[in-house]
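Let us begin with a simple case.
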Amino acid sequence: MNKFLGGVLGTATAIALALPAAAQTIDYGSLEQLFGEPVTTSATGKPQRASDAPVSMEIISADDIRRTGATNIPDILQRVVGLDVARFAVSQSEVSVRGYNSSFNPRLLVLVDGRQVYLDHYGMTNWDALPVQMAEIRQIEVVKGPNTALFGFNAVGGVVNIITYSPLYDDVDNVTVRTGTQGYREGSAVTTFKLGEKVGVRLSTGGYNAENFDTNVTDPGERDTLSLSPRRRSLAANVLAQVTPDSQLGAEFTGVHERRTEMVNSYFYANGDYELWSGKLTYTANTGIGLVEATAYQNVADVDAFTSNLNVAFNNTVRVAKIQDLFKVGTDHSFRVSAEWRNNQLKDISGTDAKVSYDVYSVGGMWDWAISEKWNLVNALRLDHLRLDRSGPFQGGASAPFTNDDYDRSLTQPSFNSGLVYKATDIDTVRLSVARGVGVPSLFEFGNMQASFFGPFFFGSYGSPRLDPTIVTNYELAYDRAIKEIGGGLRTSVYYQTNEDVRSASRPLVSSPLAIVSETDNVGDSKAVGAEASLRGKIGSDWSWKVGYAFEVVKDDYEAFAATAVNHEDSTPRHKLSAELGYTHGKWEANLFGQYISSTDMLRSSSDFLTVGSSNIPSSLTLAARVGYEITEGVQLAATGFNITQDSQRLTSGYPEERRILFSLSSNF
């Protein structure tokens, strides 16, 4: 057993590193100190040094998170070169990797300690409702490009894996309070403790109240919608027990209740009321056949969406069970084999009790071959088989374009990741990678249940069982160089990406003065070419800096009607330039971040659904800053500002984003 674990990384201290991506049993802190850099599991599913990863990725540390002063993860991710962040309201941001951002963006898979927090109903992430407090995050791992072969459907743009502190290995006790503009008031608490020597517990809770942006709200319907005051309440409990010297058992429970205003995927504002619950069990054992991990979890989302014209309610339940084995053959070959079952269902609870669901059966494998001291090859392959089903009536009756029998359908799709790493010298690394990702339609895209009458006017929007997945293929060449003279390094990459069978939610079936009926459909293909570069370093012992640039050109080949439903070619900024400067001395620390984004065009709809158009977003320059002072040991007072140079600025097709100023008091004890 110990021989197996020791061989994975060639050192006796690497026992913890052999544990897989979804497990929370890695002692990240000790290993980071040992190797002098962050340790990641998000690139291959096998723990490894971040510098050895065969994909383009970034790791954001807890110190990085604190220095931003951010209250939410999108404000942190905005500083990663190659990521796009669009803030539509105080409580809603959308994040994408390398363009293709949209409201309710479906292309980025988001995990917390390996559990999916991506919501399958619309295929989106409610970043504001994640069941995690900032003070309990150890690091955020961002994988750029498709990674479906490791994580499954929808990891087509990239993966964000949020790693929290271990209840067994880490000692975290924090209380934070914040207040600021937009009526923002927040409080959070995190604590860890031991039950004996073999059981660790982490508890966290938090919440906030705020007011929406209120500048230039001209639409009467949306003025009423935006009058809602966003708020969130969340709690989480994590337990990790050392059952035997070679096995661990973990349990997790989370709950979130959030109310917010959001720009939905049809590009108009609505209010959403989210109740999210999850439970997870994980068992990891070091056995004679390798390191085996079994995981089972359930996510439940009860969501009410409402405007002055619309009110729908539904339940989305996801059940996942998976098992994987990580083992080594000889000294140069590591393997991971896995199997997974997933049941995903969406039920209309606003009147019809209609339900659309699917089961997915998956098998996968990863082979990591250390060819020599300079060359390493990683290949991952996965096969997913989906069976679709639907029951219950259709809203709109005879206007519905399908019957339940049409949902008796199955899909089988392969995905793969292949990465070749060449360590040319001790300071030069070259990566060549190719990946095929599969973006499965969301449950709403498969079985949308929305149909309404507004007086004599009928509005019907239906999903389609005939949809094909979107296939994303990415080719990439990357080069990294450590530069000791500046205390940092250079990271560069160029990539070419194809997107086949892009989906749209608005193919018109009937359009008349009294009725609009549409369905979701595949509308065409899209291609992208881009380049990224970042350079970071230090000046003396007090100053740190980073500059970054991302360039991307998207070319859409969509059907004519799709111009009113999807618009990636014009909505993806061509140029993004960023710079960051940090200062730490004694009890003081400061951070300044600036970003320039070139102009774009983004879709926009009216609150009555009758007008859909394109809105020009001018180029923008935004600045964020934070100053912190340690009052006494473990107690810090900080002031943070976002978009600080202007009262408000138009950054999306939604309403202008206002300046945000926050004051926080944080105590670690």
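The second case is a distinct protein. As before, the sequence precedes its structure tokens.
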Amino acid sequence: MRGPLGRITAVASAIGLTAGIALGGALLSGGAASAATPPDLDPGFVTDASGVLGDAAEARLEKQLGDLAAKDGRPELYVILVPDFEDPGNALAWADATALRNNLAPDQYLLAIATEGRTLAISAEYGGDGVQAGPLSEDRILQIEDHLGGDYLADDDWEGGISYVAGELDRVPWPWWVWVLGVATLALLVFGVTRLVLHLRRRAAAAAELRTLEGQKKRAARLLVRADEAVRTSEQELGFVTAEFGEETTAEFTTVLKECRARLDGGFQLLQKLEDSTEDTPAETRAWTDEIIRMCAQTDRDLDGRKQQLASLRALAEGSAATLTRLRTARAEATGIQQDAAERLAVLTAAFPPAALVGVTGNPAEIGRRLAAADAQLAALEKAVQAHKPSAISQAVHEIERLLAEAGDLRDAVKAQADALAAGAAPGQTGADALELAKAAVRAAEASVQARPGEVNALALTRLNLAKRQLAAATASGDPQEAARLAASASDVAAQVQALTGAPTAPAGARFSRAAADDARSERERPVMYDEPSSRQSWQSIRAASSSDDEGRGGKAIAGALGGGLLGLVGGFSLADGSAGLIILFIVLGAVFGALSGAFGGNGGGGSSSGWGGSSHSSWGGSSRSSRSSSSSRSFSSRSSGGSRSSGRSGGRRF
């Protein structure tokens, strides 16, 4: 039937077929163009071209991403879901091209997900060649991609995966200065804990020492030596102040020093009782040592109480020029001291055996060293005067006066020894001669000790005190024979002091004893000697060992703190789930426990042998990730239309 109706029907069918083919071609070509060209993002933050998100889920995500963008210091996240990445087919290249097309800034990240192609990528800026970097590192982005693909998108949890990425971007790492501040705080904490540990250990050691009678005796002897040194130094300084201001002005200071000296004499008598051959009861030992310690403490308080007054009296800074002139004159006058001592010693050496001169043999050389040190202090004083530094002036003046005084004392010690030897060599001695000999011997011993403040141990000081008491008893005795005996004993003890001062042969811990009981002489007539060195250490050795132990434990505490801090760092990264605050807390706690363990436990604590780079990310698609800088350029927050954002790393991640 080829009538008009048939022709119309055929034409209509042809037109419909042509239109259908054209429409299908248009749809196909339009779809191909959409896949080949990175698309424009929809308004808002989520573009769901795959239709896998419901309206409610998309609304929730829009709100979460909007809240993230509204926070200061947080990046923005844009999300696009498409069936597949076709042109370019690489997930990361497609995401970068889409981000560049939509002009995203460095702090704006694009999450691209191919729901049917099962790949994903996050487009980000990492800096380089003048390109501004985003707030997250490439390693952090890779971690986020790993968790997103493996924990969420593999189970088609599209909303949960996008929400997870938004949450991770809400946890931007702290800036570098926060870490610097944390490290500085940790260092201060480690230092404080170490000092506290050492302080507590010293206090515990001191308390343990005081709990034993032997330790109490050592401490009493140690304090007595220090107090004697302080009094002798103050006596030297008072001599200069008296010469400068007169006896009336310094009468109060003279009285205080006399009281201190009398107190120390009593202390040395008690120490003599503790060190003799007679065994003391624990109660006596405790009472005597407590009394010595109390005497020394009172002496320290009396000296400290006058120290500020004496400093104010002298006012060295105001009269520094006159003081410098005075000390230069004193130094010039002291030039002949060394030569005088050497000449006297040469005469004595020719007339007496070396054993008689053991206490003064090295005095000329010591005088030379003190004068040289005084010259150096004079130069320092001149600089301090020119710079108007009161504290430096005071220190230099004190040192110069001390050095010159000790040089004079060393010369006087040679002279006193010469007088003592001359008195002992005189023929036909009487009881009065023996007393004069004892006085000369004690003066020589006193001069030798006076010339060496701080260099004489408790043994020599105790013997000197005994010699002085015996001499005083000989002088006061009305019995000529008793006076002669006491004078001879004082001379013998003074000779022991000279020997101990010049070349000590007895240890600080030696005990005194009399001669053997079978000696025909009486107890009081038998000479005083010291017994064989005991096996116990002197207090100086114990103190040195304690100091060395403290230093060693200080190093162990520091090593323990470092090891504990490293363990805390490793534990923090393992357990704190990336929280910077918790990581720092782990580090601080680890450092504290490590320092305590190192100081008290004997081991400094160790650290982990693994480094930050111990773990590695496998490349997605089999190729390795390189770290080259982005080739794109932009100004301020915009990006150019060419180049790569993501350091050229290949692929994306399959899920």
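The first helix runs from residue 4 to 36. The chain has 18 helices and nine strands.
Keep these points in mind for the review questions at the end of the chapter.
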